[in-house]
Amino acid sequence: MKNRLTKILIIRRSALGDAIHTLPLAKALRDKFQDAQIDWVVEDKAAQFIVGNPLLNNVYVLHKKTGGLKEFFFVLSKIRKEKYDIVIDTQQLLKSAVIMGLSGAKRRLALSDGREFSGIFANEIIKTGRKQFDISYHVVKRNLEIAKYLGADFENVDFVLPKVSSENISKVKELLKDINPDLKTVVIAPETTWENKHWTVEGWKEVLSELVGKVNIVYTGTLNDKGLCEAILSGFEDENIINLRGKTNLSELAEVFKLSDLVISPDSGSAHIAWATGIPYVITLFFATSSKRTAPFGEKYFSFQSEAKCSPCMKKNCKNSEKNKCVLMINSKNIVKLVNKLLQFEE
Predict the structure, then answer these.
(1) pLDDT for 24 beyond 90
(2) Are 150 and 181 in contact (CB under 8 A)?
């Protein structure tokens, strides 16, 4: 296909991790169609790394809870006025496919095996030999099949994030002012939205017990998970652990990761953000979800998959009679051993 596309619209409304996993597609398209107008439709909760991204020209933000039909049709009218050459639905749900179908674009692309009858809104189905929820096929590679279909060549999986403001950089430096410059820095980011993605409090405490005094420890999380934070940090009140729970936005969180040496997290938005920065080592823990499908990959990224027979189940809530047995199947000693190896500590 010749480099003739002038207007491209990507639809990936949510969630944060999924939006980040779609950025390599935007990068491949930008490299191929350097002068094209490339735009994106996203929901507010996933917008932080899409709005202001240098890969994109325009971003349409839909507010999931407050926007309503009035906002939806206002955004749709703006999309239709642009007369896009091509619209790509990477989410493949009804809520994304409807926008594609009503966009007015002549070419409406989606991968095969979409959900909620989303495929009926596309007029070009890109056939793939792997199902959308194939637990052994990474979502980034699946998204890049669209780039390949459009003739975009890519050797590496590349992320581009928006530039962090000088104010945000200054704020993060102030938050981390008590960091010991002679020690390496490990961030633990235990929070995620799925019950079945959480590790045990005991597991986190065992890791902390092995790391305190050897490294700077930074705890990150949202204001929502006060109970989890208090449970994990209980007993470590006298240790120099920097608690950033609720003190950073996502852009500032990315800056925290850039200033760290290693991040430990379950399968979460935090793990994907840390991966996208390209700077720290990342260790990711997988229980209900599949490391082969969503884990950071590359020489600096490592994952532990629960050895439970039911893992990965890909379920938000555990249906097993031995509830959440999978979270007990990752040994904290193995994590500490890997941390020591990556940070070159003697055991």
Answers:
(1) yes
(2) no
